[in-house]
Write a structure and sequence with these properties.
The complex is a heterodimer of chains A (about 160) and B (about 700). Chain A has five helices and five strands, in the order ββαβββαααα. In chain B, a hairpin with a 2-residue loop joins strand 4 and strand 5. Classes of the chains: A alpha+beta (about 160), B alpha+beta (about 700).
Amino acid sequence: MRKINLIVNGRQHSIEADERETLLDVLRNRLGLTGPRFGCGAEQCGSCSVLIEGEDKPSCAVEVGALSGKTIVTVEGLGTAENPHPLQTAFLEKQAGQCGYCLSGILVASKALLDRNSSPTRAEIAEALAWHLCRCGAHNRILDAVALAASRMKVPA
Amino acid sequence: MIPPSLQANPVLERWISFPAAGKVRVAFGKVEYGQGIATSLAQIAAEELDVAMQRLIVVNAASGEVPDEGLTVGSMSIEMSGASLRAAAAEVRALFAQEAATRLGCDVDEIVIRDGEFLRDGRQTDLDYWKLAPHVDLRQAPQGKARWKTSDRHHIVGKSQPRSDLPAKVFGGGFIQDIPLKDVTHARVLRQPGYKATIKALDEAAIRKAAGGDIDILRDNSFLAFLSKSERAVTLAVAAAEQHLMWNDARDVNPTLSDPLALKSLPATPWEGGAPAPDSSNRRKHSASYGRPFIAHGSMGPSHGIARFDGDTLKVWTHAQGVYPIRGMLARITGLAPDKIHVEHTQGPGCYGHNGADDATCDAAAIAVRRPEQTIRVQWRREDEFGYEPLGTAMQIELSGELDAAGRLVDFSSEIWSGPHVGRGYALVEAALAPGTPPPPPMSIPGFSGGRLNATPSYEIAATRIRENVIVPPVRTSSLRGLGGPVNTYACECFVDELAGIAGTDPLSYRLSMTSDPRASAVLERLGALSNWSRRGAGGNGDGLGLAYSRHRDRGAYVGVAVALRVDTEVRLKEMWCVADVGLVINPDGAKNQIEGGMVMAASWALKEHVKLGGRGIASTMWDDYPILRFPEVPSIRIELVPQSGAAPFGTGEISSGPTMAAIANAIAHALGVRIRDMPFTREKIAATLLVD
């Protein structure tokens, strides 16, 4: 066990942890952030995705010991019901989801995409989400929602 | 007439009550799992009572709290629960209107209700549901006399309503996995490889060492669970146990049984029905065989169960498809009386039928009664879900048909080989606690077999017959979205396309010529227009356009799907269209979401999915072994609902998958000029087909 400093959703957390513990377990069990979800434990589905230094990464496969001082963003860091992120608003407007289990990972991945490309094409959105699985078949609504959010977030030139 | 679930739960108060000023409590036995049923049913209740949606408190399904409506299955919730809720609401409304009329000294026909307020001749009175509630006894049975509204008076039903379950899910919550629990005990179960398997040797010391933390090993016969306050410790323990455990009599499945054709080699119970073959001289005949392999539900989250036993009562949280059926199983497994078990439904990851949810719940309960005073949280691993969930059974379907001189299909036979489509009511933990005891035969419903749904094409055919051979599958199978219906529709609608070719008729005209039902024709004609069918070329150049049609379960929604695609080394879907007549539409956007989800899932089944058997049972245990359709592979989809204001509502969850698979197959045949009949239509299969051709 050692002390590890994490910056999660803009807040500093100092935790005592085995450095080999997965980021997913730490986020869910220690920090009470349930957005990142256990899906496969093998980097194959995207349910557990979070942003690490702005990049879409599976938190099931990252050991927490490697993350001291790194910035981590979960879906809870995007927005809240009272103050939602434009992506969350767009997902609700488009009813983009069925069971919804994949949405936390897809939302943070979409944020990472829009941060580096403010007006992605539909194909670019699909490519950015290619490793994220959705079983219910909400893909088109999700693509529509990301495009809608992008159009609203674009700073007028 | 009083609908069946209201007859079975005949106290009005059980469905509707007025617990606080301005609020309406609505309860039903169907559960939400992202299909939007809670929203649609709330619309029905609000409509009939004439109150705003915001006034409703929809009761979460929990034993004792909601009417018993069995399982949430078969696209039947709107038809079954919706009919009962509507009837209950109409009864409640009528009782209140009568009470108001008596108090106002007027005729009940003069009363109009607007958002819960009672108006007389359009003028306000001081009466509303909440003022009247103390004077109306809802602890009574329905009389069956109240009339519900006709659809021309609907203002909530028929309008798209955002789903009540979705907001929580975009903010990181909403699931059983997210319930905050104090001092939880994490549990992992190492599954018994087949019901006969017993533990030969278990190196507990090595497992404890690997866990690296304090763990409790629960071993009872062939049931083996690892418990700890540390999730990491149980994760490591169960992984180590795979290496430090030897089984006797572990199941050993022959990989060749992965092929649907192999079903024909297994012992079967046959069933036959239909008319005898008429005289068939001078007829053109055609036969063809179609196969669909075993497929997985493949929910994004492996199953989860939570239980706590305080020495007297058992509290359980589940994402099973209903709270009462699982309570019966839990009573059997724990030896507790049902009234000592409280079951609460909480949403889980995608359902699509009988996946591992029931088993994870039973695991948690079996552990909880052996470890009282602990809150047990069982999380299945990905490999547990893929490896031990009941599969959607493989099916082999052999069709033959005869055409009269005009080319019309006048005689049709189907022979089906299939495992059971309903295998409910028995949990894996039961086999592990009593190893060697074979599971009981699957629950059967008289006159019903999931394998025979939509076994004949949805057209007017003079003579049809079905022979179904239900085999005992090498691994457990149970219900998966649509049961055998989508697979039968797939085979029938491919076959109808082939017959159109033999008759020398365009596939759309051929279908239209075999139905006199105007609703069927309307769906097909609109589908033709949407998909630009008239400009469909001769095919054979790699670009394909195909369509298919069915009436869901021969009595529900009318559904047509068309698919445009391109085939080179593999199939690339370009566009899909669906036209559906689902009767009275409750929540149009919700219905479209369900129909579209069904199309994408079916496209994934058709192009990619194939569970591989072998070794101790199922060999494809991770997503890398079981590819599904991904974002860049999903085509654009357009869905149109045919307005049918006067009709009864039909369910939508399962209706699009059969036509979608068939339309894809028909489009591939159009693109290639040669037909592939065994799913999935992978790159390998296309290459093999083109080589042979």
